[in-house]
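Extended Data, panel c. Modelled sequence:
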Amino acid sequence: MISPRTEFFAGLKAIAPILLGVVPFATITGIAAVEAKLPAGLAIASSVIIFAGASQLAAMQLIRENGAFVVIVLTVLVINLRFTMYSISLAPYFKNLASWWKGLLAYMLTDQAYALSIIRYNERPQQPAKHWFFFGASVGLWVTWQLGTIVGVLVGAQVPASWSLDFAIPLTFIAVTVPAIKGRRELIVAAVSVAIAVAAAGLPYNLGLIVAALVGVLVGLVLEAA
């Protein structure tokens, strides 16, 4: 019998290589908060409360540009819509958990933890204590994200642009996507999603991301039924 402790550390170990790319991502978000004129305490608190990198970064950029409150809220909601799809995908594995567990895991849901966990769950559908793997991966990322954000808040704009820390953002997503491509169907879905995302990049409020995700899901369903 695999113990919760074993699963927790398996999740922590699985997320570890990805954390190298999360650090600069979090640091950029902290810097963006400072540039948006948020007090240090509020910037750090917002990272703890929101814990959603892409939407945090987008919100800070809009605040810095004096974007309308409604626009900021809509942008954050649209960017985070993908978590609805993640939740639906994970629901069968967590359906028997207590409500407090579900609430905690919902708060800690990220692209990286989801990708690692769903791959493992598909490979080991009968594995006990599944949620502990997800929790371990999430804890590792949460701690790294908060520390990276704090560093960004403290250093502010002192990091030179030549460091190109923003290059780490797509790398973190590539790192969790590539291992999931194990066959022709996954490759087709990934290729179509990327093509749609690039073509729809000009849509407002980051809608291109949602459109690409929905098209990818539809393509996957069609291929699975074929």
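The chain has two domains: 4-163, 181-226. This feature is highlighted in the accompanying rendering.
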